[in-house]
Amino acid sequence: MLNNVKIEGFKSIRELDLNLNPINILIGSNGVGKSNFISFFKLVNNIYEQRLQQYSLKSGQDNLLYYGRKQTSYIKGYLGFGDNAYSFELEPNESGSLFITEERSIYYPARNNTYFWNSNIQESLIKTSKTNRDYYLRDYLESYKIYHFHDTGNTAPLRTPSNINDNRILKEDGDNLAAYLYFMQEKHPKAFKRIEKTVQSIAPFFERFNLQPDRLNESRIKLVWNEVQHPDTYFDASHLSDGSLRFIALTTLLLQPKLPKVIIIDEPELGLHPVAINKLAGLIKSASEKECQIIVSTQSVNLLNNFKPEDIITVDKVDNQSSFTRLNIESLNEWLKDYSIGELWTKSIIKGQPV
Question: 10 Å Cβ neighbour count for 168?
């Protein structure tokens, strides 16, 4: 499990040292830095995937550095995984991108025992390293993908056909949802049936998926499904509401047979019915019990009410930087006798108040 994250000089985060739990729910007003914390993992994933140059050029140096180059000259990151850790330091260069001034693969960080490092390189070497320690790190670093199934327009990736062989992992925007579900239908039928039953529990009109290669182009597949009492009527993703489609994607993500080490979701509650939000909370808890760590940014009081105080991290802007605080159950015991966590949030009893 990812135990500890340290960040310096990244976007609105001047300095952060945060311990993580199996479930981590971030709450706070708009613009305080929740999304910046989430996007730190996108930076780490781009470093690992050897795409730092492309990512930093596209994002812009001043947008990545805390208050830009005039205020900050570097970005530092540290990720601790028990007896292993990974750290890096980035600096801007004249070409407009960032480069790695130092990259460390650390063994027994508490003992300061073993460090293996690379310096002044354009791209990370962890992905291509042959050491056992870096193999261990790769299981985490490659899973740092930010899932956001927000785009549900008529031409959104979630609604369009996908390549039937594009099924290694579920993509961050759900672009290959139909192909991934078809893979599970064929290779992991028990997990597939659990997904169908979960969707049925919040969408009584949904009977089952009807997934098969397109008859006119067998390399493509659509998200086809049957409606209750209308078995001969054709329905595909274009006939699903935004909330139903997002819930199918979230259910697939959280009930897949081989869960990633970490699942990071940005505002998963968008467009969901309160019943679906409660069901989503149950899926998050279930996934966390299977050695999958969950990091979620949310604005939903309903979602918040499903979790314990120690699962929740409040985010505020203090002294021109993002401040992160995990709730303390002992300080809230008396309040929780009369109020829910969500009520304490909306009443500004706890930090991270919504706007």
Answer: 10
